[in-house]
Amino acid sequence: MELIDQRTKKIMEECKERARSEGLLFEDETLEYIVTNKDLLALTPKFMIPTLYDYWVHDVEVLKEYGKYKLYPTNPYETVINSRPAISFYNSDNPDWLNIMIFYHVLAHIDFFQNNVYFRHTWDEDFVGLALADKRLIESLRNQYGRWVDYVIEFARSIDNIVGLYDTLFHIDYPFEEDIPSPIEYYFNEFLQNEIKVPAHTIFGEIGKFNSLLDTQDEEIATSSFLVDINTRYPEFEAKYKNFLKQRRTRAVDLLEFIRDNSPFLSQEKNQWMKTILTIIRNISLYFAPQVRTKILNEGWASYWHDLLFRKDERIRSHEVEYARVNANVTSISRIGLNPYAIGLRLIQYVEDLAEKGKLNYEFQKIERIDERLNFNRRTGEGKTAIFNLRRYFSDFSLLNIFITQEFVDLHDLFVVGVKFNPERQSVQYYVKSRKAEDYKKMILDSLYHPPYIVVDMDKTTNSNLYLNHIFEGKQLIKEYIPDVLIGLEYLWGNKVQLETTEFVVERPTSPDAKPTLKRQRVVWTSKDRKVTKNVL
Known about the structure:
By secondary structure, the chain is of the alpha+beta class. It folds into five domains: 2-116 and 294-327, no CATH class; 129-164 and 253-290, no CATH class; 177-250; 332-447, no CATH class; 453-536, no CATH class. Helix content is 54%, strand content 14%. The protein contains 23 helices and eleven strands. The strands form three sheets. It has a five-stranded mixed β-sheet with strand order 7-8-9-10-11.
């Protein structure tokens, strides 16, 4: 692995100028490396972060990738990571003209990373530098605690898919510390209403009493006098207020954070080092979460700009056919399966066209006649503004849910593929199952990353029992993974762990002609002393 030479770097800088002239925004500093296929295979398990901590699973994945490569040799073109400065890797087998196309693709990715709001918690961090510091820290812990470090990493990674990205983004916009209620606010909003549950007229009377003090006294004196009166009438008020603040400050964004901050086992002085590992695993998961949630839009955005910018570049001359072949391989629609480059690109182009014609408004939505909808064109010139707003505010879910319409499906001849077995030919047959936009949208949305929604039940959780509640969203947990995950959580909590979830059971028909049916039931898995049991509620 080595930095690109000065001649190629000059080409990259020229690509930056052209990209900026079209409206892309990104920082000046970037790093570009030339790597071999072997380098790419070694970096893939580490999410292309060379400085990421060492872990035995990474080594297993590298061996697996080497085995795949021997059977099915491939030649990846590039990869780019969201760091400061942004780092990109280019295959050593790429010709110069292809690297120019890829430079545009990479610059669009960098623009997306540095402007999409789902990445805003990463904008001020040098993740590569942080990863190097974390790697050195984990190595020092290994020298001190041996294999227990890898156990803690494994237990933490078993739940790192349910970190609270959206809660993290929310607290960036609305910092938690700025919303701490005063004792007076707690008295009116929480204590009277939720703790002692007095009637509404009593609350209004208390508000009137406080307002009367404010009319005759300075605000500070009135507040102090009123609090003295509250503590006289309710001796438990001060303790409840402190407990309320403590709960607010320790309320976790997600399970990893809750265990790190509240586990009786980890709070012991001899186990404090484990909290460091949980923090590292959680931060890495949070860092990559937005990339998983914006893959289709991100790849579509990069494909849109590499095509637009490269076709305008005079350096394409004499390479038009080769470019067309490469671009078709990258952005062609897959009839079976999903190509995120293809769908993302076409959705961006579709939104641009809608905006250019003024169709992104309620007036157009009210039109029912097909011919009027087809001929509607206000020539607003808002196409680029619309797609830059997509890049700024949208995720894959919002893009697909809003803009996969019947018009879009018909425009690109999209359909849902069904599979059936042909007993005569002893083969599998594919057929067009549906051309409806609702079915196509559901198929793609179902393929998106959607981790389970698991929360800590604070009413049932104690130092001797961590009680987790799986909010059922239509998909049951993979049951064969539950015991191992619970055993790992039991170790981190230091005591019993329970998981309440929903499972499907097959109800056998009472008559031979009837079909089996699925019934949902609520169950509780319990891990105690590394023995896992399940009970039906």
